Amino acid sequence: MASHHKNLSDFSSIEIASAAPYSFGIAVSQWNAEVTGRLLTGAYDALRKHGALEENIHLVQVPGSYELTSGADIMLRDGRLDAVMCLGCVIQGETRHFDFICSAVAHGITQVALKHNKPVIFGVLTTDNLQQALDRAGGIHGNKGEEAAVTAIQMAALGAREATHNE
Ligand SMILES: Nc1c(NC[C@H](O)[C@H](O)[C@H](O)CO)[nH]c(=O)[nH]c1=O
Ligand SMILES: CC(=O)[C@@H](O)COP(=O)(O)O
Predict the structure, then answer these.
(1) Is the ipTM of this complex over 0.90?
(2) Domain total of the chain
(3) Residue 90 Cβ < 6 Å to ligand 1
(4) Of 2, 56, 87, 120, which one has the fewest beta carbons inside 10 Å?
(5) pLDDT confidence of residue 8
(6) Is residue 11 part of a domain?
(7) Whole-number pLDDT of residue 163
């Protein structure tokens, strides 16, 4: 299994840019708040650890992961943000509803990123059960929210470099 005994939040092998110059949006789902709250803490703490200013971190809450697409779109409308993280937790139930939500949010946020030409980071846990989610929200497998924040920083820095290069 890919993540067996692996801390998915181990970034020791990469150089992470400073987050200080950039503005970030975080859209977080209220479904499975026990998990998404931990993802949010991981993301926020990682942004601040890498220099993001408190006033440059903007938060919106949406009902469920399916609404993360709309939340990201709304956050990107005024063009002020350099990257948006979408944090959610979808846990398999008895029906195929899980499949539709996971597919919709993955495709949806991709379309939003292309629409606004800004990075929209997929920080959504898609698990078989609650324990798998908790293990990836500050547990034995790290914190998907922290991963999303590091990814957002790296992509914001990439965008800034490319903008400078193309001037
Ligand atoms: N079952 C989960 C949901 N379901 C709700 C949907 O995300 C959506 O809000 C609803 O279908 C109305 O559009 N959401 C999660 O984030 N996680 C779940 O496990
Ligand atoms: C991912 C979901 O929407 C799921 O939790 C709902 O449960 P069910 O498939 O049993 O209706």
Answers:
(1) yes
(2) 1
(3) yes
(4) 2
(5) 63
(6) no
(7) 85
| pLDDT of the residue at 166 | 84
Q: Is 15 a member of any domain?
A: no
By three-state DSSP, how is residue 87 classified? strand
Domain that holds residue 153: 24-165
Q: Is 97 in the active site?
A: yes
User: Does 47 fall in a domain?
Assistant: yes
Which residue type sits at 132? Answer: Q
The closest-lying atom of ligand 1 relative to the alpha carbon of residue 91 is 19
CB hemisphere CA count around 90 (13 angstroms): 23
Binding site, residues?
A: 31, 65-67, 89-91, 94-95, 122, 136
For strands 57-62 and 24-29, give the pairing. Answer: parallel
Domain with 130 in it: what CATH number? Answer: 3.40.50.960
Q: Average pLDDT by consecutive 10-residue portion of the chain (167 residues)?
A: 63 87 98 98 98 98 98 97 98 98 98 98 98 98 97 96 86
The reply to whether 116 falls in a domain is yes
Contact predicate 98/66, CB 8 Å: no
